[in-house]
Design brief:
By secondary structure, this protein is mainly alpha-helical. It has 9 helices and no strands. Helix content is 75%, strand content 0%. The protein is globular, with a radius of gyration of 20 Å. The protein starts with a helix and ends with a helix.
């Protein structure tokens, strides 16, 4: 059980770490950036393989509002991953540098914009499985089910949400997600660690926000369902 919990956390955490590391282009330059990207796509392939049985369940059961939203989230993630993969191959200089060709500026732009969207949607994707994440964390750290441990985890989630909202503004994420241009790049000569801390907080905050939003939607659906039963 402990090993299962570790596996459930390590692979997604590793993928999240890789995609954040790939954002430090202006610190480590192109070579490490492409290396992190290749390893990320390798992890993604493995993640899809070990969860392939879930694709068989997509046609089963009824689709309520929550399930349609989750399906839309995953569809948007697939589209952006595809754009990221195609533009990565087209803009590569280090790994496929033996090809002599010029890269159109629009390819690089789409690569960066899709990358920022991938970061955000991965966070939302984690939020759709947040209950499982918290269960794995509790198992890994030996937290027995109780009101106290549940309260600690919820308080931690709220702190992540608040820190994530602050980091979202500090990093200027809205501009990056709206295909806008910004000259406000992170100054790695001044500090490095806060850059990764802010992006980690943004991902964690969006995961928490999406989880509680979907939980509220489920509660509203259950309330309407019970109301109809009571009126019948």
């Amino acid at each position: 059980m402990l090993r299962l919990a570790a596996n459930r956390l390590c692979l997604p955490a590793g993928m999240a770490a890789l995609v954040i590391l790939a954002l430090d282009y202006w610190w480590l330059d192109n070579g490490p950036h492409e290396f992190f990207g290749v390893v990320f796509f390798g992890h993604l392939s493995w993640h899809l393989f070990i969860n392939r049985h879930r694709f068989l369940k997509l046609r089963l059961g009824q689709y309520n509002a929550r399930r349609w939203i989750v399906a839309a989230i995953h569809t948007w993630l697939i589209i952006n991953i595809a754009v990221l993969l195609i533009t990565s191959a087209a803009a590569s200089h280090s790994i496929s540098g033996f090809f002599q060709y010029s890269v159109d500026a629009s390819v690089v732009e789409f690569h960066w914009f899709s990358a920022y969207w991938v970061v955000m949607i991965i966070a939302v994707h984690v939020g759709t499985h947040w209950t499982r994440v918290m269960s794995s964390v509790a198992t890994l750290f030996g937290l027995s089910p109780s009101g106290f441990s549940a309260g600690v985890l919820r308080l931690s989630a709220l702190i992540l949400l608040a820190f994530g909202a602050w980091s979202f503004a500090v990093l200027g994420v809205p501009t990056k997600l709206m295909f806008g241009y910004s000259l406000d790049f992170w100054d790695f000569t001044a500090s490095v660690t806060p850059f990764f801390a802010h992006w980690t907080a943004v991902m964690a905050g969006f995961a928490v926000f999406s989880h509680y939003s979907l939980t509220a939607l489920r509660s509203a659906e259950n309330y309407r369902s019970h109301s109809k039963v009571g009126q019948a």
